Amino acid sequence: MTEFFCDGILSDLNDLRWQILDAKEERWLKQKAFVNLYKSTLIVFKMNIPSWPKISTDILVVFHKSLEIFKENLTSSKIAFRLIEIQETLLGPEAFISTKMNANDIKDLAIHFEEYHNIGRFFDVDVIDNTGKMIERKIKRKCFLCSEQAIDCMRNQRHSPEEIKEYFDEKIANYLKS
Ligand SMILES: [Zn+2]
Asked: Is 79 within 8 Å of 106 (Cβ atoms)?
């Protein structure tokens, strides 16, 4: 491993791959630490951004606007919560929220947000129970662009990265105008 790093042939792409892995591991460790600390359900409110970089002025505005809406959804469902932290990493903006409510109920609310918020398809709201177990979606997510399952489009590379990015940028721009 050390030799691999020292031989000086690491391409930018490989470098990015390592950074992504690091950022994902850091998020995972943080989730684990928050679950242990608060002994509660943990919500990881994050976006599904199909291009690089995953942080821009527009993305941050959309993220914070949508986070406010998500928090209002929690409040109107009489769910007490604590916003622990908001961070910006290579993977995009993320908010960590804890609540004493049942993780399955919170997952239902998160799925409702992903389905019904104007640009909910661009959000990935993870819910982890107080033992650290990730609550899985029972119904698979639909693709951004078509009515097929997202995982199926990804596996079959049904859409080009350019097509997906164009769609994302257009929806984000429209949302910011609304
Ligand atoms: Zn599709």
From this structure: yes
C-alpha of residue 101 to centroid of ligand 1, in Å: 34
Taking only the tens of pLDDT, the chain with its 178 residues reads 444 444 445 567 788 889 999 999 999 999 999 999 999 999 999 999 998 899 999 999 999 999 999 999 999 999 999 999 999 999 999 999 999 999 999 999 999 999 999 999 999 999 999 999 999 998 889 898 888 999 999 999 999 999 999 999 999 999 999 8
One-letter identity of residue 10: L
Q: pTM, whole model, 2 decimals?
A: 0.90
Total domains in the chain come to: 1
Please give the radius of gyration of the chain, using alpha carbons only, rounded to the nearest integer. 17
CATH of residue 127: 3.30.70
CA of 143 to the centre of ligand 1 (A): 5
Does a structural domain hold residue 176? Answer: no
Alpha carbon of 76 to ligand 1 centroid (Å) = 33
- Cα of 144 vs centre of ligand 1, distance in Å, is 6
* Contacts (Cβ under 8 Å, ≥6 apart) of 49: 59, 92, 122, 168
* 84 within a domain of the structure (yes/no): yes
